């Protein structure tokens, strides 16, 4: 029996390029290979946007040692063929064409997780893991996600958003717009993940500086009012129509702290939290909160997942005011770093089970979509 050919795409022109590599190699490719059911094809997109494929790209030491730069000078770029699905053409004296059965995206951030890659895969008409293009676009736009969830009656902290160019052209107008919000505030690039360029500010001077930092990374900025008496929780979810939440997870942070990039991934955490274990060492699993808030967090996360149209896998971040007992939606990550395998493991699902289920969900979503009509017979052209 032939193995299912799964292409794992990672890297890309994103500030989360390095995080993507670890997610792909440690949390996706390795578990897929352990199933012995799949032929895994690693596809690496370099920081300048060139696509490569080679078995050696599955070795994490290639990237940690810096040898990837040397290898890319020897490899020829990959060619893609969008005909009867997705085919990759490996260059050489005798070019080899490989038909891809399923794509497993592992591209965090821009030019991938934000829906761009999903649009490409939709055009190719190939099954792929995770959120589709519309839900990825919504989830990765923090402002749009909050507008939509608010419409559906889901609580969110008060916020304003604006374009970076508008702040450059009319800073006083934007600051006046923001004046209705109460400090402390959080300033964020709308489209980035991994907590890159997020700032917590206490006054107008810090606010201006934080906006300039965010504008260096994104053309759209959101400013959010902090939640008082804060406990932050996150809920990973798997599913298309039938949804399964993992454990409600509680980062080990004080209310005035937050998860920046170093805290999440570098293990030191600096001023914003200290641990020797990286992101997975910062959490209580399950969250140590009252049962009613635990259930409300789970229900809110599932409602957010539904109304944004997520599928496959996503992680919903929430903010709890422990005094008012209110649960606020914060943001959605349509491709959780490392698939949040540490949480699923604690909930009783291994990495092998996660990737296998996600492949099945991708195939099921694809089959359901194939039943929809994509053409409509008309006499329109006969009038010309």
Describe it.
The chain has 384 residues and is α+β, with helices and mostly antiparallel strands. The protein has three domains: 4-130, Rossmann fold (3-Layer(aba) Sandwich), CATH 3.40.50; 148-154 and 227-369, ATP-grasp fold, B domain (D-amino Acid Aminotransferase, Chain A, domain 1), CATH 3.30.470.20; 158-224, 2-Layer Sandwich (Dna Ligase, domain 1). The protein has 13 helices and 17 strands. The strands form five sheets. Strands 3-2-1-7 form a four-stranded mixed beta sheet, with helices on both faces. The protein has a four-stranded antiparallel beta sheet with strand order 8-11-9-10. It has a four-stranded antiparallel beta sheet with strand order 13-12-16-17. The model is unreliable at 263-280 (pLDDT under 50).
